[in-house]
Structures are given as C-alpha cells and as structure tokens.
Amino acid sequence: MKLKLNVLTIILLPVHLLITIYSALIFIPWCFLTNAKKKNAMAKRIKAKPTSDKPGSPYRSVTHFDSLAVIDIPGADTLDKLFDHAVSKFGKKDSLGTREILSEENEMQPNGKVFKKLILGNYKWMNYLEVNRRVNNFGSGLTALGLKPKNTIAIFCETRAEWMIAAQTCFKYNFPLVTLYATLGKEAVVHGLNESEASYLITSVELLESKLKTALLEISCVKHIIYVDNKTINKAEYPEGFEIHSMQSVEELGSKPEYSSILPSRPTPSDMAIVMYTSGSTGRPKGVMMHHSNLIAGMTGQCERIPALGPKDTYIGYLPLAHVLELTAEISCFTYGCRIGYSSPLTLSDQSSKIKKGSKGDCTVLKPTLMAAVPEIMDRIYKNVMSKVQEMNYIQKTLFKIGYDYKLEQIKKGYDAPLCNLLLFKKVKALLGGNVRMMLSGGAPLSPQTHRFMNVCFCCPIGQGYGLTESCGAGTVTEVTDYTTGRVGAPLICCEIKLKDWQEGGYTVHDKPNPRGEIVIGGQNISMGYFKNEEKTAEDYSVDENGQRWFCTGDIGEFHPDGCLQIIDRKKDLVKLQAGEYVSLGKVEAALKNCPLIDNICAFAKSEIGAV
Question: What pairing do the DSSP bridges indicate for beta strands 565-570 and 438-441?
C-alpha cells in the first residue's frame, strides 16, 4: 500500500508542478487581461458607511450616499410603465419560453414506487409583442367578465409563463394581485382567499383538482376560476356558484372588438400592486401590501448590483413566482430584455427526478447566464457533486482536490484559474448549462462551504442577498468583486440599514470590534404593512419624522468596517434553555445540513428540559 501511494505521489507531483508553473507563467498577463488589480481594489474598498458618527446611525451605500434611489428608468414609476418600456424597446426579441412536453412515462422504481418521467423538447418562445398582445387580451377579457380596477384577483399557480402574463395584466389594468404559494396547504389557501376577498382566482388544473376542489365550499368570495392549462375539465364535478373558464377562452373574449377597444385603467405609484402572502412558516400566512412605488424602488436597488444586465442574458425561472425574490428577478430581467426560460426543481438538470434517464434537463437545453437559487438547492448540488467525487479513483480524486484547493486560493486573492476551469470543472459547470455568469442566492443563509464550492466549481460569482417580503426583496446584495463568504453585502442604493440594540440577546451598537443589533431597513422599498392586520403592522413598521418607512426584521446583524452586513442570529431563532444559555436553532440546522446522510432537517428545542 505504501509503495502504491509513493508511486501515485510521483505521478501526481508533475501535475501539481505543472499547475504551479502554469500559474506563474500566466500570472502577469492574466492579471492584466482581467483587471485583477482593479477588482481587488473594488473588493477591499469601503462600500457603505454610517450617515453620522452617532452609534446606531443608518448605513448607506457610498455610491448613493446623499439620497436613496427610488426609480431606475426615467418616467417608469409604475410596473405597467416598465412593461411598456420593455415591449417598445425589445419588440420582436424572444421573451418568455416554455419547453414542449413530448411524452410522459411511468417508471417503476426498485422500491416499487412509480415515478412520472417526462421527455421534453426544445423551448418555444413568445416575443415581447406576443406577450403584450396576450396581456391586452387577457386584461380586456377579465374586464368583460366584470372585474373592476382596484378589485383584487388571486393567483395560486406554479411558476410558468402564464403566471407572468397574468401578473403583467394585473399591473397594467390596476387589478391588485393576491399571490399564494402553490405549496401552501388547504387551510392556508382558504385563509388567504377569504381574507383578501378576491372574487377571481387564477390557478392550474393540477392545483384545482388536487387542492381546491375540496376547499371551494369554504371559500366565500371567489366566483370566477380561471385555469391556465390548455386542457378541458368536467365543470359538472365542481360545486354550483362558480364560473370556470380557461385562460385561452378569457383571452379570446378579450380579443373581440367590443372589448379590445376598452382602454385599461392605469395605476398610479401609490396604488396597490400586490398583496403577497408569506409562506406561513411562523403561523398563518400574512398578506404583505406592496404599492407600485415600493416594488419599483426595490428593483432599482437590485438591478444596480447585477453588472451588464441586458438582452444577451438568459434567465432560468423555476423558484416560486409567489416569492418576492423570483418575482422581482423576473420583472427586472423582462425590463432589461433578458430571455426568461421556465423550468421547475423537478426538471432543472439531467439528473432531476422528472427527467427520463438519457434525456436533457432544462439547464442543458436553455444554457442560462443568470440564475437565482436558494441555499437548499445549492446545498443539494454540493452534496451530489461531492458524492460523485468520492466515487472517483484515487488519482482522479487527488487531481480534483489539487485543482480545487489551487483555484480556491486564487479566488481568495481575486484571481482565477482558467486551466482548472477547462480541465477539471467544465463537466461540473455543465450541470447548469455551462454559461452561468452570476448566481443570486437568497431566502436563507448560505453556508461558507457551499458558497466557496459554487465559486470554484461553477466558475461564477455568487451574489448573496438579504431582503424580506416586507422590503420587496431588497436589502443587501454582495458585489461580484466581493469573494468573501458569510456576509450579505452592503445596503442597496434604494435603502438604508441601521442596527437597534437587543439587550436581552446581548447585542448592542456599542459592541467591539463591530456594532451589532437587530436589523432595521428603511426606504421607499418598504411595503405598506400587513393586509387587515393593523396590530402586527404597528408592531413591525414605523415612520420617522421625515416620512420614511422602516421595518424591524427580527434578524440580528453585524456591520463590518467596509460597510458589509453579516447576519449572525435571529430573535425568533434563539431558544433560552433552563440554565439561561441561548441556543440558535438556525446554526444547528446549518451545521447538520452539510452531513451527507441528511437531506433536510428541522431542529426544535424544549426550554423546560434544557436540551435540543
């Protein structure tokens, strides 16, 4: 065994030496070609600073220090104006794409379970003009059915092109849109629909049959149900009192001359755009009220952190559109002329559970350049790739480790390793299509280990962001030149962030070496409060003497000297045990998720017995 290892060491030594010599040979030209010196300076510069020397003062981005940004495209102060701008500028360019389903097959698993597998074709695209035509027809059709401006309409549907068409219709015709996660249970859906008093509901046949059919008699206000699929359903199976339409039939109704000539009632910046219901992870879902001006400001801040966003980009949409991260990302991409190709977590890659073995997943076909992801998906990718590495022979595994460690050191210095990218990481990068130039992570903390893995193996920066539904998804995003981990970046140009003492948890703005406390976000991107919940609104929101709205997040943060924020705790995440010590359940879960034997985990604590 010792002899074998010595021989392998002799074999691998020239490889290690080759990488070192290569690195020395290309160091000067590579630094010159990639502006590494400039990037390093950008990474190390001050990115945000407090507005005064007083402890607890708000931090603002240094690039927009004197005033907060509220609008990106001049004159486009509502979402419908962003849409019109995009249609007029990009017209016949591809806009929204959906893969054709060629066939479906039932596949028997070794454990006896039957999985449905899909064989998918290429993406079929609608251009901007076609999307605009469908939006106008759908809006006229809803008007013909009796929907009035400022009357709410709900959408309970999976992420797909029809979701975005319906949303753009509502923005243009001033129908406040109520969004509900497709994964919500029956009780949560009934609560959201009844509380919002929506009389129109957009959904899919699958959700209509699996979740809504048995709940319809508990829903008080809905009278019109519109399903987005090109299918027929047996309306006799549903209770009386509901009018059920296909989206296609509503569009056909709206295209008739007597309705298509009716001009939409356009919104103002202070009109309600969305009532977005949360996931309900801490109780009943709460409806967050967002005005057009709130969303416009939030997206202004987000877009500033994505360099060169434009028509050359392709975005893959698969996260829930009922989540503010995905919704604002897609609207921003649409505004800047990016193609949006739709997918799902079950068809994303060649190895996804609904893709038939030997067929291509959505990333392989679409080859996106931009992608949003939540840490859970990145953790899953990390564990899958590393499990494959463990199956390699000794030489392959050692080569991978040498290349990985080498590139990791280069990244920490602000450089790259193109030879490693070409020889070692090309196949890994191909799992997401091979063209991803930037990924945005949000929704939960991303572990430094997974963050570094994505940087190294997928050869792109990870923009880790922090925001909430209540802040329209906007708060902070790391810059592409910032390769540190564990931080979420500096405040966006649309908002300012301050820390508030939390004495019980031991966090104060006077802490050394860095101020710590509860994160409070202020700016025009802060939503208007919780729908029909004035008590909770008064508890979490406030307005200062200048009329600016603030939201108390409940998250604990720490500002670093360069103005970047790190999330270090959450008030609701801390459990006080019998002996008086605090345990952070989020940190326990984050540590255990990296175990290869654990797919998902939920930690809880019982204070009375003092154990987790």
Answer: unpaired
């799992």: which residue's tokens?
431
All structural domains of the chain: 79-91+125-267 (3.40.50.980)
Most confident of 23-37, 331-345, 401-415: 331-345
d(CA 61, CA 422): 37
Q: Tell me the CA distances in angstroms from 28 to 34, 36, 130, 379, 482, one per residue in order.
A: 10, 10, 50, 35, 21
Phi, psi of 304 (to 5 degrees): -65, -25
pLDDT of residue 411: 86
Which letter, b or e, does each residue of 228-263 get, where b requires 16 or more Cβ atoms within 10 Å of its Cβ?
bbeeebeeeebeeebebbbbbebbebbbeeebeeee
Q: How far apart are CA 359 and CA 285, in angstroms?
A: 38
> If you write DSSP's letter for every residue of 36-101 in order, what string do you get?
HHHHHHHHHS--EEESSSSTTPPEEEGGG-SS----SSTT--SHHHHHHHHHHHHTTSEEEEEEEE
- Segment 465-500, tens digit of pLDDT: 999 999 999 999 999 989 899 999 999 999 999 999
Average pLDDT over residues 526-550: 97
Q: What count of other Cβ atoms lies within 10 Å of the Cβ of residue 449? A: 12
What is the per-residue pLDDT for 22? 47
Q: State how far the alpha carbon of 302 is from the alpha carbons of 72, 265, 451, in Å.
A: 10, 28, 20
Q: pTM value?
A: 0.89
Q: Amino acid identity, residue 109?
A: Q
User: By C-alpha distance, which of 139, 153, 165 is closest to 255?
Assistant: 139
DSSP state of 224: E
Tens of pLDDT along 205-262?
Answer: 999 999 999 899 999 999 999 999 998 898 888 988 899 999 999 999 999 999 999 8
Strand segments (E) across 447-525: 462-466, 476-477, 490-491, 495-500, 516-523
Mean pLDDT, rounded, for 88-96: 98
Give the span between the Cα atoms of 477 and 564, in whole angstroms. Answer: 9
Nearest to 197 by CA among 238, 153, 144: 153
Give the other-Cβ count within 10 Å of 558's Cβ. Answer: 20
* Alpha-carbon gap, residue 375 to 444, rounded angstroms: 6
CA proximity to 584, closest of 573, 568, 597, 596: 573
By percentage, how much of the chain surpasses pLDDT 70? 89
H or E segment and range at residue 339: strand 339-342
d(CA 193, CA 199): 9
Give the mean pLDDT of 8-37: 50
- Whether residue 320 contacts residue 313, with contact meaning beta carbons closer than 8 Å, is answered with no
Which structure tokens are listed for 357?
């073995």
User: What's the pLDDT at 281?
Assistant: 65
The candidate with the shortest Cα–Cα distance to 529, out of 322, 271, 291, 198, is 291
**Cα separation, 207 vs 228, whole angstroms:** 11
Q: How far apart are CA 518 and CA 509, in angstroms?
A: 9
Q: Model confidence over 588-605: pLDDT tens digits?
A: 776 776 676 777 777 776
Token code pair at residue 66: 């004197």
Task: In whole angstroms, give the CA distance from residue 70 to residue 475.
Answer: 14
Amino acid at 45: R
Mean pLDDT lowest for which of 3-12, 68-77, 373-382?
A: 3-12
User: What is the mean pLDDT of the segment spanning 395-413?
Assistant: 89
Q: Are 269 and 252 in contact (CB under 8 A)?
A: no
